[in-house]
Recover the amino acids of this structure.
């Protein structure tokens, strides 16, 4: 004897009709998320652009110092001085550029925290509005069901 699986399609459709869903709230949440993503992408792209500028400048400055280092000297002692000067200049450039990278990271962190706080507020407001609307819809549906049952 074969067992037939019951079809709950009609039951599910009736249940979904009894508790209508507000798609506008979902659309608002999607728009809020899309706006947040756009702002986060802007922060990331600005940081990448600034980091690229720092790296390019650092490379250009280093190559200029290597050019100075590679010039022929008249006295052997001048080579030692040139290497010492290059090492000193390289250390100074490294410190400056690492500080510049740290500033970029700090700015990204601050902007990200600001965006997340604003997004949390927006999501909270959207969720509150959606819950209020859903509560009103469910109350209305329950009253209609109670009236129909009488």
């Amino acid at each position: 004897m074969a067992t037939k699986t019951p079809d709950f399609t009609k039951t599910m459709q009736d249940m979904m009709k009894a508790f209508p869903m507000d798609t506008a709230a979902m659309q608002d949440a999607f728009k809020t998320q899309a706006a947040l993503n756009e702002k986060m992408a802007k922060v990331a792209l600005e940081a990448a652009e600034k980091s690229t500028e720092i790296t390019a400048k650092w490379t250009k400055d280093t190559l200029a110092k290597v050019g100075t280092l590679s010039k022929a000297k008249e006295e052997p002692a001048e080579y030692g001085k040139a290497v010492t000067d290059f090492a000193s200049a390289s250390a100074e450039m490294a410190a400056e550029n690492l500080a510049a990278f740290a500033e970029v990271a700090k700015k990204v962190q601050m902007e990200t925290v600001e965006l997340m706080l604003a997004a949390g507020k927006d999501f909270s407001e959207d969720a509150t509005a959606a819950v209020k609307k859903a509560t009103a819809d469910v109350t209305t549906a329950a009253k209609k069901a109670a009236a129909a049952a009488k």
Q: What stands out?
A: The first helix runs from residue 9 to 18. The chain has a mean pLDDT of 85.
